[in-house]
Amino acid sequence: MARLTPHARAARPRPRWWRAAVLTGAAVYFLVPLAASVVFTVDVPGSGLTLDAYGRITTAEGFGDSLLLSLELAAATIALVLLLTVPALVALRLGAPRLRPVVEIVCSLPLVVPPIAFVAGIGTVLGWGPEHFASTPFFQTFVALQDPDFPLVLVLAYTVMALPFVHRALDSGLRAIDVRTLVEAARSCGAGWPQALFRVVLPNLRGALLNASFLTLALVLGEFTVAQLLGFRPFAVWIVGVSGSQAQVSVAVSVLSLLLTWALLLAVVSAGGRGAAPRPTPSPRS
Questions:
Q1: What is the total count of domains within the chain?
Q2: Fewer CB within 10 Å of terminal CB in the chain, N or C?
Q3: Are the CB atoms for 261 and 221 separated by under 8 Å?
Q4: 71 and 152 in contact (C-beta within 8 Å)?
């Protein structure tokens, strides 16, 4: 039998055992705590297995209000952060590509500043403002920012915290398309700048927009430090607060939240994978 040359031996596929080891370790790392949490919620000493903890979620005091508040904050944060970043990144690619490193550094700063320091600065400003603007119209602005029914200060804080993730998602989407060519083609067909952005660029960024929205939603639903220190009670703060009196309900809500987040992630991946080919540029006067 002919012997293999060194080149042929090097070209033969080698078993990727380390990939299976990494995947197995990752699965154990993520699934074992989740399984333990599920067992804790369904195993009641003396009563056996029961789903009573999950049945008591919707009737727990404050559940609906806190969840609704977090969803409202998430919707407002997604709208604000996309309104700020999408036009800025598109304009950056079209008119000032050399400033991309500067914008990337600025958008990454929230990852450097600890949340404790961040919320301490916000608290200082909120406490300092009313004392100096008590006799001016700006006093009502500080009051409105801290309205417990809908704290706008949390929307502003979450927008800053979401910038690194939204910027990375949108930048990856913009790198995958030729923005300049698409915009120039739309402009040559008679489309204005808003029409070129909404009817040409945004449809080709559907996957990136979904990813950015999902990351922002996950951040708002899971953020605890800023809301707790500022004295508000969205969903994450409610979960921690109810854990003292209803531990099983708290863990059951956390498990369901995690499963919901995974379901949303799969939906985003599925929707992004079905992305259609770039749409044709609009005809004049269309």
A1: 1
A2: N
A3: yes
A4: no
In the structure encoding, which two tokens stand for residue 23, read together?
Answer: 């995947």
d(CA 107, CA 202): 21
Q: What is the DSSP code (8-state) at residue 30?
A: H
Query: Does 69 map to a domain?
Result: yes
| Confidence (pLDDT) at 271 | 65
Q: Helix 152-175 vs helix 206-222: angle between axes, to the nearest 10 degrees?
A: 150
* pTM for the whole structure: 0.79
Which CATH number does the domain housing residue 165 bear? 1.10.3720.10
Burial group, residue 78, by CB count within 10 angstroms (0-12, 13-18, 19+): buried
Alpha-carbon 265 to chain mean position: 10
Distance CA 185, CA 280 (A): 9
Q: What sign does the CA torsion over 221, 223, 226, 232 have?
A: positive
Domain that holds residue 258: 50-276
Beta strands in the chain (DSSP E): 43-44, 48-49
Tell me the C-alpha distance between 208 and 76, whole Å: 18
Q: DSSP letter at 282?
A: P
Look at residue 76 and tell me if it is in a domain: yes
Q: What angle do CA 259, 261, 265 make, to 5 degrees?
A: 115
DSSP 4: P
Instruction: Give tens-digit pLDDT for 112-131.
Output: 888 888 988 888 888 777 67
Q: What residues form DSSP beta bridges with 49?
A: 43
pLDDT (tens digit per residue) in 198-235: 888 888 888 889 889 988 988 998 888 899 998 898 98
3-class secondary-structure state, position 253: helix
CA-based nearest residue to 257, from 240, 233, 235: 235
Nearest-angstrom CA–CA distance, 89 and 81: 12
* H helix or E strand, kind and range, residue 207: helix 206-222
